Amino acid sequence: MARTLRFGAAAWLAAALLAAGCASGPTPLRDSRPALGTVVTIEAYGTDEAALRIAIDAAFDEIARVERALDAYSPTSTIAAFNADPYTERRLPEEAITILDEVERLGVGAEFSSALLAPVRLYGFGTTPTVPAPDDLSLSVAAARGFRRPTAATGVFARLKTPDPRLEPGGPLAPGLDFGGAAKGLALDRAREALRAHGVQAALLTAGSTTVTLGTKPGGEPWHIGVEHPRRTGTVMAVAEWTGDAALSTSGDYQQSFEVDGVRYHHILDPATGRPAAGIQSLTVAGRISGLESDILSTALFVRGRDGALAYARERSVSVWLVDAAGAVRSHDGAAGTGVRIEAVETP
Ligand code: AMP
Ligand code: MG
Predict the structure, then answer these.
(1) Which of 58, 77, 161, 216: CA 20 to 30 A from 35?
(2) Ligand 1 pocket, 299 CB below 6 A?
(3) Which atom of ligand 1 is nearest to the CA of 9?
């Protein structure tokens, strides 16, 4: 179960099934492998099956490379070595710097924090669900804020040195970096570039909660990506449609969660408080953006909240489709002008 925690769990089933169900005309070569804490599926179109297999292997190699760099829950990853001693200034892997740069560029640094490893761990999602003690939560949130990037070119280090033994490496609140809110998007981007470099002209890559496409299917039929209902697992409540390169990500309060006394605790935390972000059940971002952008934005805009998320979509060319805490759908089709659409599906 711990694996599903790493990069956030996924609505991969709906997305993959729908994508497959809508594939008429030429049949893609399809390969699904466990990676990034979920199942990654690649569907690649082409006539030379041997060449497609080589391309898909190269794509999964790229995904594995991102995972080896960023999987905070694997003892052998580069980020785990960083987290083992976060008080020493050290260069971060290139993948981490790419994510930090993108968060800054997108202007969502207040909502997207890559330093929430300890606060997330306190909830014990998937292992021992626990409502954290308020003191533990506030200490780990304060420590998370201590991560600083001295210059754009160097790594990040934890500046906050505190005598509290609970913050020592190996201790229960040991601070650490966790790129789980963006790693799937980055990995799918890298995999897509590997496919492109191998001459693949059309492919769909999904890690469930994030999907990216490459090119247009032979015959020109659009890609269709299902968005899962946040309260009816496996039910598709909306479908995104486009041709060409684009990306879609969904963040939800149902993906890693538990309930105590009628209160739902889930894995998307407000970096200001360490508490689960309130007000939204599920939020989907789609557009002519990279997988990394969509993955960062779905997490960050979930934290920003309903009105802030819709305002962001109005200001930038992205579409936001969300289900608020009351179950009402709100959306803004900021990407419609670029041919990326999300439409509701009638549910019985
Ligand atoms: P996603 O499913 O992409 O929204 O990512 C959720 C995962 O990102 C969580 O399981 C945490 O590992 C991590 N996370 C939680 N809250 C945040 C946040 N505010 N900013 C960045 N990452 C977060
Ligand atoms: Mg995300």
Answers:
(1) 216
(2) yes
(3) 2
Spacing, Cα 162 to ligand 1 middle (Å): 25
Give domain limits for the chain. 3-26+201-344
Q: Which amino acid is at 292?
A: L
pLDDT greater than 80 at residue 183 = yes
Spacing, Cα 286 to ligand 1 middle (Å): 18
Q: What is the pTM of this model?
A: 0.93
Q: Retrieve residue 293's tokens.
A: 């952008």
pLDDT tens, 9-65?
A: 333 443 444 444 444 568 999 999 999 999 999 999 999 999 999 999 999 999 999
d(CA 45, CA 39): 20
Q: Summarize pLDDT for 104-138 with one digit per residue, the tens.
A: 999 999 999 999 999 999 999 989 999 999 999 99
Beta bridge partners of 72: none
CA 321 to CA 227: how far, in whole Å? 9
Measure the CA–CA gap between 314 and 319, rounded to whole angstroms. 8
Give pLDDT, residue 139.
Answer: 94
Place of tokens 């709100």: 330
Burial class (CB in 10 A: 0-12, 13-18, 19+), 117: buried
Q: If you measure from the C-alpha of residue 185 to the centroid of ligand 2, how many angstroms do you get, rounded to a whole number?
A: 7
Which CATH number is 3-26+201-344's, of 2.30.30.100, 3.10.520.10, 3.90.1150.10, 3.40.190.10?
Answer: 3.10.520.10
